[in-house]
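Help! Submission page says 'invalid entity' but I think these are all valid:
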Amino acid sequence: MRRIGLLGVVAAALVVAATAAARTSAGTPIVIGWAHDSTGPMAPFDGPALAAAQIRVAQINAKGGVDGHPLVIKTCDTQGDNAAVSKSCADKLIAEHVNVIFTTCDVDLAAPVVQESINAGLLTIAPCIGTDQMGPKRFGAKGALAFSFGNVAQDEGSAMAQFAWAKGWRKADLATDTVIVYFKNVVQAFAARWKQLGGKIVDQESYQDPAFHGNNVQNAVSRINAHPADVIVTATAGAYQALAPMITGLRTLGNNTPVLNSWAGDGTYWLPKSPKVSNYYFVTYADAFGGDPNPAINALAKKIHAATGGFVTGPAAIDGLATAIREAGGSTNGAALAAKMVKFHDVPTLSGLVSFSPQLHSVYHRQYRVIEIQNNVPKLVAEVVAKVVPKI
Amino acid sequence: MRRVVELAAPVALVLATALLGLAVSTALQTYFLDTLVKVAIVVALYVFIGNSGVLSFGHISFVALGVWTAGVLTVPEGQKNAIMPGIAHFLLHTNVGNAWSLVLAAAVGLAFAFAVGLPLMRLSGLAAGIATFGVLEIVNNVLRYDDRIGPGLNAFSSVPETTGIWQAAIGALICVVVAYAYQRSRYGRQLRATREDPAAASAAGISIYRQRLLAFAVSGALAGLAGGLYVHLLPIEIDSLYLDLTFITLAMLVVGGSGSLLGAVVGALAVGGLDSFLSAAENGVDIFGWHLNLPTDTSALTVGALMALVLVYRPGGLTGGHELSLALPRFRKDGDG
C-alpha cells in the first residue's frame, strides 16, 4: 500500500512537472499543426473548416491571443488522405514542435495522423469527425487525447428522426452508405430513435459510393422505389458521388418522396443542373446560405464563401482549444488539455454549446439547423435538438 | 561469381535504400518504408509475370489478403469491436504476434493463389489476365462488403506499427532472395523456357500448367507477406488495395524491366522514390539548404509523364530486362554479320 502511495505521489509530480514544462512562456506562440486534405473526398469539409479557423485565429490574436499567447496554424496537405502522406504529415508537424494537431473529418482517413499524434502525447482534434470513435473507443487508452467538435452520429440521427416525426412522416425507407462509420451510425441512430417514436421502417438498403469504387447505388434506388414510404433516410456526402445519382434515379422513376440526409449532405455544390433537386432535407451545424439565426455565423460564411455549414466546426474547435488552454493555466501538455476538455459542459463556441464526456469525445445535444432544398434552392426551415442519444 | 553479382545488385539496392532511410527525418522515413513495401510487392509480381510472361491483374488481391490476415489478427482485442463491429466470434478473440501475423499473411497468400491458380493457370494471354482481374474483383468485394470477416471499408487502425526500417528491409530482402532462388531453380528455368517458346517447352516435356501454378503460388506467398508488412506500417483501408495499387505496381515492374529481378527492384525504387520525393516536396522539403515547395498534384503529373518517357526511349524498361553482369560487353568484329 505504501509503495502504491509513493508511486501515486511520483506520478502526480511527473504530471505537474510535465504540465509546467509544457506551459508556454509569455508571448510564445501556441502552434496548431493542421493536417488537411486539399484534393480528395474530404476537401469540401476540411477546406472551409480550416479557412474559417484561420479567421478565428486572427480574431483571437487581435484581442491579445490566448492568455497573451498568439495562435499560429501550420498546415500540411495529406493529398487526398493518402495514408503514407498523412502519416508523414503528422511526423513533419511533430518535428516542427507544434503543440496540438488537427486532422481531417473522417475517423478512418484521420487514423494515420491520429495515431502518430497521440503516440507523441499531443492533444489531437478533428473539427468535424461525426462518430463516437474519435477517442478511447477506437484508439485505446491513448485515445483519451483525441476529440472531435463534430456531432456524435447517434445525436444527429436522433435529431433527424425527431424532425421527420414532427413533419408527420410515419413510414421510412433507410438507405445506408457503408463506406464510412459515420454514415452507417447516423442511419442506425435514426432507426433506433424512429422506432422509439413509433415510426415504421419499410425497407433497408445499402450502397457504396463511386468515389470509393462503389457501383451499386442504382440497385438500392430500384429496391427503395419498390417500397413506398413517407421519407427516404440516408447519410452520404455529395463529394462521394452517390447522392446526386440516387436522387436523380428516384425522381426519374417518378418517386418524389422526401429525402432526409445528415450534415454530410450539406451544400449545393453537388446538385445536378437537371433535373433540379426538390423535396430534399438535411440537418447541419449552421446555415451556410445566409439565413442562420446567428449573425456571426452569417458574417463568417459570407467572408469565406462557405459551401457547407461544417465550416463552423473549425472556429468552434479553436474556441474549445482556447478554453482548454486557459483552464489548464496556459499549459499545452496533451494530457493536461485532454483532462480539461473531457470535462467540457456547455462550453460556448461559435457552433453553439459543446459538451464532452469520458465516453463521448464528440459533441452531443447540438442545436441542428434543418435545410430544405426545392428547385436547387436551399432554405432554413427548422431547428432541432435531439432529446435522446440512442444506443446503437 | 555471376550468381553472386546477380543477387548482390538488388540486395545492395534494398540495403542502400534502408540505410538512406535511417539517415532522414521520421517524416521522410515513412516514404522509404512505403517504397520498400512496394519493392516486396513488385518482386512478388515479377516472380509470376516476369518468369511466365503472363500478365496478372490479380496479385493485389493476395496483398489485400495479407493485409486482412495480419490486420485482423493483430488489432488489439479491445479495439476490434469499434473497428470491426460485425466480426465473427472466433476472429474477435484470436490474436497473434508480429512474426506470426507475417507468416500467416504469407501462408494465406500462398494457399489462396494456389487455389485460384488451379483453374486459372490453364489459361494464357489476355484470357489469363482478365481472369486474374476477376479474382481481384471478387476478393475486393468480399473484403469490402462482408463485415463478419473484417472491418469492411474501415481502416485497420491500432495495428502495432512494427514495420520499421529493418522489418521493411528484411521483408523486401526475403522476397528478393526467394525470387532469385526460384528463378535460378530448375522450376524457374522451365517456366522461363515456356515464356520464350511454349511449343518447344512442351515438346521437351515441360508442363506449362504446373510451372505457372508453382510460380503463381510462390508469388502469392510473397504478395501476402508484403501485405502483412503494409498493414504493420500504416492504418490502411481495403479500398486502397485495388485498381490504383494494381496499376502503379505493374507500371513499376514494366518501367524497371519485367524480364529481370533487378528490373523489378529498380522499377519499384525509381517510381516509388520519385513519387515519394515529389509528394514530400508538395508539402515542402529542404535539400542541401534549399527549400523546395511544389504545387499540389505535381507528383501525379510528373510520375505519369516520366514513366511514359522512359518507355518511349527504353521499351524494355530501365534495365532492359537484364540482370547485372560482370561480363564485359562484347564488340562485334568488322565484317561480323
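Support: the input was valid. A stray whitespace character was the problem, and the output above is from the cleaned input. Strands of chain B lie at 285-287, 290-292.
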